[in-house]
Amino acid sequence: METLNMAEKYNDDIKTYKNMLRHIEKHKFKSEYIVNLCKNLYDKDGKSASKQIGDFSRICEVISDRRNMIYPILNSIFMIEYHWIISIEKWKIKYGNNFEGWINTIGELEALCSIAVIKHDNPYWSMPNIVTGPSKIIAKNMGHPLLGENRVCNNLKVEAPYSVMIITGSNMSGKSTFMRTVGINIVLAYAGAPVCADQFCCTIMDFYSCMRISDNLGQSISSFYAEILKIKNIVKAAKEGKQVLFLLDEIFKGINSRDRHTGAMILVKQLSKTGNLGFVSTHDLELAEMENHRNLKVKNYYFSEYYKKNEIYFDYKLKIGISPTRNEIYLMRLAGIEVEEINEIK
Known about the structure:
The chain is an alpha/beta fold and 346 residues long. It is built from 11 helices and 12 strands. The chain has helices at 2-9, 11-26, 32-38, 49-64, 71-78, 80-95, 99-121, 175-190, 223-239, 257-273, 328-334; strands spanning 129-131, 137-142, 154-158, 164-169, 199-203, 206-210, 244-249, 277-282, 298-303, 305-308, 311-314, 319-320. The strands form 3 sheets. A 6-stranded mixed beta sheet has the order 6-7-8-4-9-12, with helices on both faces. A 4-stranded mixed beta sheet has the order 1-5-2-3, covered by helices on one side. α10 links the parallel β7 and β8 (277-282). The chain starts with a helix and ends in a 12-residue tail after the last helix. This is DNA mismatch repair proteins mutS family domain-containing protein.
């Protein structure tokens, strides 16, 4: 009975898959990759997936029609449900092992269609240039794909002799958004999609991020320990000799300032020496002093804000150097917190 209920429940889904497979089989693809992919839709006898799943769809359709007054009488006489179960089991034996392959093929084609739509909807985005050699990312007018007309684009050039960007800046100035901009465009580039930039060049790297870490009460894991586990994976990959791209947003923010500074310096030193490429955002301005270390491949960048008539504004433009501004006191006052002995913002 459970088998019949399942067949009835998913009858409409089976019809949908049948129609999708039929549409795919009718199309004449030119791409060699897609042509080879669609070979999974035919069995050794040349029977198409739409016909194979069509046989199952007809069984499900008949089962779905059993909701009538006459059915209980006919079923008790002819044992209809017994014959339906036999039909389902025969289909499973003959074609059931192919079903997962059909679904994977549909999923792969849907993913490819999604990538194709990106270029259609964003004709001015550029195709990335994937190169070999030492790790690098070079971009011109790169922006966040999801911000639309509100995006602010930046140029980026990270290559030898530098490999680690330390990004400082006040709250809400754009540090985290910039790192997400790098990350999402790298993912688009690796997927073969256009990127939100006028030009984009990068090497293939193993991509790791440590951003927006939260605790896990179910597993009794604090946010700091969850961060440590992610960083452990980055360090492990680096020690294995992989080309690693890492994004570290406000690392070790869950601990005291002294240990945070010490731990961040040790981590950046270790990662910069192994030829990896990465971005580290921080409020710890002392961390930016690592650029002065001769043996480290560290370069400082920052985001800043400016004020007009005692109101704060952000330009979200990436600049070379260390952040000269802070806005924490201003934001506290904006929230109604009384802060004594503060210089007036000009």
